[in-house]
Design goal:
Elements lengths: L1 H64 L2 E2 L2 E5 L10 E2 L2 E2 L3 H18 L4 E8 L16 E10 L7 E11 L9 E3 L7 E6 L2 E3 L2 E3 L2 E4 L1 E5 L5 E5 L4 E3 L2 E2 L22 E2 L9 H17 L10 H14 L3 E5 L8 E2 L9 E5 L5 E5 L3 E2 L4 E4 L2 E5 L2 E10 L2 E5 L2 E9 L3 E5 L7 E3 L3 E3 L3 E5 L3 E3 L3 E3 L3 E5 L3 E4 L3 E3 L3 E4 L11 E4 L1 E5 L3 E4 L2 E4 H4 L3 E5 L3 E4 L30 E5 L2 E6 L4 E9 L2 E6 L8 H7 L5 H5 L6 E5 L18 E9 L1
Parallel strand pairs: 8-11, 8-46, 9-12, 9-47, 10-15, 10-48, 11-16, 16-17, 18-20, 19-21, 20-23, 21-24, 22-25, 23-25, 24-26, 25-27, 26-28, 27-29, 27-30, 28-31, 29-32, 30-33, 31-34, 32-35, 33-36, 34-37, 35-38, 36-39, 37-40, 38-41, 39-42, 40-43, 42-44, 44-46, 45-47, 46-48
Antiparallel strand pairs: 1-2, 3-4, 5-6, 6-7, 7-49, 13-14
Length: 656
C-alpha cells in the first residue's frame, strides 16, 4: 500500500508538471504572438509615417519652387534661395546648382533631420546618372534622389527606408499626366465614354463618365455601345475641384475607384507666345540672320534672305538656253561651282538627273522648278525663289533646303532608293511629301504653310525639331485590306499653329523606341483609323492585371499628344495604344470598348442592341490604352515648352 501511495504521488506530480509546461508554453506563445503583433503594428506605423514624411518633403519642394519658405510657408524665400532660370551664352547660370544645393541643405533637410522619428534624410542629385544623362550645362531639368529612414521612437530597432526620385523641370503641367483636360463647363473638360484603360495619373477640373461608347458609322450616324466603365491605374488630380461629389465606385471598372487629389498647382502654357518665341529662335539659328516670325514679316524677310544667297555669287544660266531645250541634266553642270538657274518668261525650269551626281557647291534657282531624279543625286544646298517639285526614283540627299514657295516631293520605290533632308529646311509655302520608299528628315524644319507627310508601305523618319505655321497631316495607306505598315519614326518635338491630323499610321520612337514624338497643336487634334479592326493576340486581360498591356501584337504609338483646343478619339473600330500621353486643354473626349469581337462596322452596329455587352467585355483588353511615359520630360528638353517655374514631379516610391 505504501508503494502504491508513492506511485500515485509521482503520477500526480508528473501530470501537474505536464500541464504546467503546456500552460507556460501557451502563455509564452501568447506573449510572443502579442509581441510579434505589436512589432508588426509598429512596422506598419513606421512605414505609414515614412510615406507621410516623403509627401511632406515633396510638398516643401513645391513650396520652394514657388519661392515660399518651407520653414515658414507664409513667408517668401529670401532672394538668395531663388533659382536663376536664365542662360548666359546658351548655358545654365553658374549659380543654379549651388543655389539648389543651398536650398536643400538649409531649408529642406534640417527641417526633417530635427524630427525624433527621422534617423536620416539624404537628397542627392542624380541628373547625370543612368538612365537620365542630363547635360546640366545646357538644361535646367534635374533629378533628385530622396532617401529618408524613419524609426519608431519607442523601438529604435524598427525602422524603414523609403526612396523616391523627383524630377524638377521647367515645363508646363500637362506633360505630367497620362490623360487630361484643363477645361470646365459644357462641351469642355475630360469626357470618358465607355471603357478605356489608363496607366498613369489623370488631370481634370470637370470629369464626365458614361458607360456608353460612341462612334460614327461611315454614313455619319452616331451610335452607342454599352460597355464596362473606365479603368484608371493612377490618381485623378484637379485644381481644388472635389470631383468625388459626382463620382463613386460605380463609375469605374470593377468598382476600383482611383484616389482624387484636388491640390494640383497646374501651370498652363501660352501657346501663341511659345510658338512665336520658338519660331524666332529656330529661324535665327538656321539662317544666322535676324529673321522673325513673330513680327508678321516672315515672308518678306525670308524672300530677302533667299535672294541675298542667290545674288551672292554663282554662274548664271538661263532656262531654256535655246528654243529646243526642254530640260537640263544636272550632270552637265559643273559640280564644284555655285550655279544659278533663272527662268525665262516665267517658264517652269525642268531639271533631270540620269547618272550619279554629287555637287560640292550649292544649286540656286530663280523661278519655279521641276526636278526628276532616277539615279543618285547629292546636293549640299538647294535654294529656290519659287515653287519646287521633286519626283524621285533614286537616291536623293539634300543638305540645306530653302524654298520661298511650295515644296512637293514624291519618292517612288526604286532599286535601293531612299531620300534624306540632312540639315535644315525652311519652306515659305506648303510642304507635301509622299513616300513609297524610305525617307528621312534629320535636321530642323520650319514650314510657313500646311505640312502633309504621307508614307505608303514605307518608313518616314523625322529626327529634327519641326514647326508648322498651319495644319499638319501624318497619313498612312488607308487600304483596309492591307496590314498597317506605314511607319513614322520620330525623335522630334513638333509645334503646329493649326490643326493636326493623324490617320492609318504607326508612330514609333527612333533608336528602338527609346525616343518619341511630342506633337503640340494649337488647333484641334484628330487621330483616326489606327489599327482598325485589328486585335491583340490575346484579348483577355491577364490575372492580376496592373494596367500595363504586355501583348506585343499591337505596337504602341510612341508619342505625347497635346492640343490647345479639342480632341475626340474613338477606340471602337480603331485600337489605340499610346505610350506617352494625351492632353486637350479645352475638351478631350475618349470613346472605348473592350475586346475584339467586332470584325467590321456591321458587327459594331449589332453590339449597340446588345444589353449584355458590359458583361461580355469585362476581363477583356480595352481598345483604348494610354501608358504614361515620363521620358517626355527628359528627352529633347530644349525643344519643349518652358515656363518660368520648376515643376516638382515625383516618381514611384521604393521601400527598402
Amino acid at each position: 500500500m505504501k508503494n502504491e501511495k508513492g506511485s500515485s504521488l509521482i503520477t500526480v506530480l508528473l501530470v501537474a508538471l505536464i500541464f504546467m509546461t503546456i500552460g507556460l508554453a501557451i502563455i509564452s506563445s501568447s506573449i510572443g504572438g502579442a509581441l510579434r503583433t505589436e512589432i508588426r503594428e509598429t512596422d506598419i506605423d513606421v512605414t505609414y509615417q515614412a510615406s507621410n514624411i516623403m509627401e511632406e518633403i515633396i510638398a516643401d519642394l513645391k513650396l520652394a519652387m514657388k519661392k515660399k519658405d518651407p520653414l515658414s510657408p507664409e513667408q517668401d524665400l529670401p532672394a538668395s534661395y531663388h533659382l536663376p532660370l536664365s542662360k548666359n551664352g546658351g548655358t545654365v547660370d553658374v549659380n543654379f546648382d549651388p543655389t539648389l544645393m543651398k536650398l536643400l541643405n538649409e531649408k529642406i533637410i534640417p527641417k526633417y533631420n530635427s524630427l525624433p522619428s527621422v534617423e536620416s534624410l539624404e537628397i542627392r542629385d542624380i541628373s547625370t546618372e543612368k538612365p537620365y544623362y542630363i547635360n546640366k550645362q545646357f538644361h535646367f531639368t534635374r533629378v533628385l534622389e530622396i532617401k529618408v529612414t524613419v524609426k519608431d521612437t519607442h523601438q529604435a530597432a524598427v525602422k524603414r527606408t523609403m526612396k523616391r526620385n523627383v524630377i524638377l523641370s521647367p515645363t508646363p503641367s500637362f506633360l505630367q499626366y497620362a490623360v487630361g483636360s484643363l477645361g470646365e463647363g459644357e462641351n469642355k473638360g475630360l469626357e470618358i465614354n465607355g471603357s478605356p484603360n489608363i496607366l498613369g495619373n489623370v488631370f481634370s477640373n470637370d470629369l464626365k463618365i458614361s458607360q456608353n461608347a460612341k462612334f460614327y458609322t461611315t454614313d455619319n450616324v452616331l451610335m452607342e455601345i454599352p460597355t464596362p466603365f473606365p479603368s484608371i491605374f493612377g490618381d485623378i488630380y484637379s485644381e481644388g475641384k472635389d470631383l468625388r461629389t459626382s463620382l463613386s465606385n460605380d463609375h469605374f471598372y470593377k468598382r476600383k475607384m482611383p484616389l482624387f487629389k484636388n491640390h494640383s498647382n497646374f501651370i498652363d502654357v501660352n501657346f501663341n507666345e511659345t510658338f512665336n518665341t520658338r519660331a524666332d529662335e529656330l529661324l535665327q539659328n538656321i539662317t544666322g540672320e535676324n529673321i522673325s516670325y513673330s513680327n508678321g514679316n516672315f515672308r518678306t524677310q525670308f524672300e530677302n534672305y533667299v535672294n541675298h544667297l542667290i545674288e551672292n555669287g554663282g554662274t548664271l544660266i538661263f532656262f531654256p538656253r535655246d528654243d529646243k531645250e526642254t530640260s537640263i541634266d544636272l550632270s552637265d553642270l559643273t559640280s564644284d561651282e555655285e550655279t544659278v538657274l533663272q527662268s525665262k518668261n516665267n517658264e517652269t525650269i525642268k531639271l533631270t538627273n540620269a547618272t550619279t551626281t554629287t555637287r560640292t557647291k550649292p544649286l540656286k534657282i530663280i523661278g519655279n522648278v521641276n526636278l526628276s531624279n532616277i539615279s543618285r543625286l547629292d546636293l549640299p544646298d538647294l535654294i529656290v525663289n519659287g515653287d519646287l517639285t521633286i519626283t524621285n526614283y533614286g537616291d536623293l540627299q539634300i543638305g540645306n533646303l530653302f524654298v520661298t514657295g511650295n515644296v512637293t516631293i514624291a519618292n517612288f520605290a526604286g532599286d535601293d532608293a531612299e531620300g534624306i533632308l540632312q540639315y535644315n529646311t525652311v519652306v515659305g509655302g506648303n510642304l507635301e511629301m509622299v513616300n513609297d520608299t524610305d525617307f528621312q528628315i534629320n535636321g530642323n524644319v520650319f514650314i510657313n504653310g500646311n505640312t502633309k507627310l504621307v508614307a505608303r508601305d514605307s518608313s518616314f523618319t523625322i529626327r529634327g525639331y519641326v514647326m508648322g505655321n498651319r495644319d499638319f497631316y501624318v497619313l498612312g495607306n488607308d487600304d483596309l485590306n492591307k496590314n498597317e505598315n506605314d511607319n513614322f519614326i520620330f525623335d522630334s518635338v513638333i509645334y503646329v499653329m493649326g490643326q493636326s491630323f493623324i490617320s492609318s499610321a504607326n508612330i514609333f520612337g527612333a533608336d528602338n523606341n527609346d525616343k518619341q514624338l511630342v506633337l503640340l497643336s494649337n488647333g484641334n487634334l484628330t487621330i483616326t483609323r489606327i489599327n482598325e479592326f485589328r486585335n491583340f493576340s490575346m484579348i483577355d486581360e491577364p490575372a492580376n492585371f496592373n494596367g500595363e498591356v504586355t501583348d506585343s501584337a499591337i505596337k504602341p504609338l510612341q508619342a505625347f499628344f497635346y492640343t490647345h483646343q479639342n480632341a475626340e478619339l474613338y477606340g471602337v473600330g480603331s485600337l489605340f495604344y499610346i505610350d506617352g500621353g494625351l492632353f486637350a486643354r479645352e475638351h478631350l473626349v475618349i470613346n472605348a470598348i473592350r475586346g475584339g469581337q467586332a470584325k467590321n462596322e456591321e458587327d459594331l452596329k449589332q453590339m449597340t442592341m446588345d444589353g449584355n455587352q458590359p458583361t461580355f467585355q469585362t476581363d477583356k483588353y480595352s481598345r483604348f490604352n494610354v501608358k504614361y511615359d515620363k521620358k517626355v520630360l527628359l528627352r529633347r528638353i530644349d525643344d519643349l515648352p518652358l515656363v518660368d517655374e520648376l515643376q516638382v514631379i515625383p516618381d514611384a516610391i521604393e521601400l527598402q
